[in-house]
TrEMBL record:
Pfam families tied to this protein: Cg6151-P (PF10233)
InterPro entries according to UniProt: TVP18/Ca-channel_flower
Location(s), subcellular: Cytoplasmic vesicle, Secretory vesicle, Synaptic vesicle membrane; Presynaptic cell membrane
UniProt lineage: Eukaryota, Metazoa, Ecdysozoa, Arthropoda, Chelicerata
Protein name: Calcium channel flower
The gene coding this protein: LOC106460322
Species whose genome carries this gene: Limulus polyphemus
Keywords, in A-Z order: Calcium, Calcium channel, Calcium transport, Cell projection, Cytoplasmic vesicle, Ion channel, Ion transport, Membrane, Transmembrane, Transmembrane helix, Transport
Family to which the UniProt record says this protein belongs: Belongs to the calcium channel flower family.
Subunit structure and binding partners: Homomultimer. Associates with the dally/ magu complex.
Spans traversing the lipid bilayer: 20-39, 51-72
Length: 130
């Protein structure tokens, strides 16, 4: 099952994806921290979840970011033996819930135009001319 030994992926592509993964984990942690300064509980939970997912991506892509954790090398070693689509599937599934929570909290902040129900509009145009 060692996919990496027989892998024909160019070396520059491997390093480029590692760079993108490490940069995106730092951005996710930063935006998650920024989202925690909010007035809605849903947005707070989405920010916390986004920071946790940023740490998970950092553990998988670049464990040197989390060298202070004893188990930092284990997720990296596990996913090095797996095909690349396993990581991609994990990232898509993990981010789905966080994005749904954030979208739901943002939709509640958008004002909607409500129609007045019991407003006396005055006489109709036909009644005014009689």
């Amino acid at each position: 099952m060692n996919n990496q030994a027989t892998d024909d992926t160019p070396w520059w592509l491997k390093y480029f994806t590692r760079f993108l993964g490490s940069a995106s984990s730092l951005v996710a942690i930063g935006i998650g921290a920024w989202a925690c300064f909010t007035i809605t509980a849903r947005c707070l939970m989405a920010g916390i979840l986004q920071m946790l997912l940023g740490v998970v991506v950092a553990l998988i892509e670049v464990p040197c970011f989390c060298a202070f954790l004893d188990f930092a090398q284990n997720p990296y070693n596990y996913f090095e033996k797996r095909p690349y689509w396993h990581k991609a599937l994990l990232y898509v599934i993990a981010s789905k819930d966080e994005m749904m929570m954030k979208a739901a909290s943002m939709s509640s902040l958008i004002p909607t135009k409500e129609q007045p129900q019991d407003v006396d509009a005055g006489p109709s145009s036909a009644e005014r001319f009689h």
